Amino acid sequence: MRVWLTLGAAAALFVVAACNRDGDSASPPAPSTNGSAATSSSTGPADVATVMHDRHERYEEIGKAMKGIGRELKADSPSVDTVRGHAALIARYAPQIPSWFPAGTGPETGIRTRAKAEIWSDPDTFRQRMTAFQTEAARFNQAAQSGDLAAVRAAMPGLADACKNCHDRFRTPEGDH
Q1: How many other CB atoms are there within 10 angstroms of residue 91's CB atom?
Q2: Can you give the pTM of this predicted structure?
Q3: CA separation (Å) from 31 to 5, 6, 36, 55?
Q4: What is the rounded CA–CA span in Å between residue 147 and residue 97?
Q5: C-alpha 19 chain-centroid distance
Q6: N or C: which end of the chain has fewer CB within 10 A?
Q7: Which band of pLDDT confidence, cut at 50, 70 and 90, is reported for residue 175?
């Protein structure tokens, strides 16, 4: 069964990658009507792989935005517009993140993921940390949209800490998945 799941997941990822070549990398995964993307009893391996792939891609976008903000804040003349764009992306995704982790899309799938099982076994802590991230993302975005670089610099540690607090508990280190 695991071999079939892995082959099915690989096929699904290939299809998703081909479909994502349209350049619309900023659109979030579509939620289902029940609020979770893969909880129905008819969810198959391709659906799970798609949810996991989309989750990974959105996190890549958030990571690139964080790095872009860091680069701008280190620059001699930071681009306020660039910081605003990155901050807006993070703030837009932050409230969606909990829906990116429906039951059945964790390490038990056999599909490579850095998401730890604790996301599902300790949902209260995960929800608390997601709420803290959402708050900090909104605060950072507000500072960025104001154009006040001093306020952006002051808000950055709170956003970075909110990311780290979740990563420390709910994400495996690079190479450990």
Answers
A1: 21
A2: 0.74
A3: 23, 24, 6, 12
A4: 26
A5: 19
A6: N
A7: confident
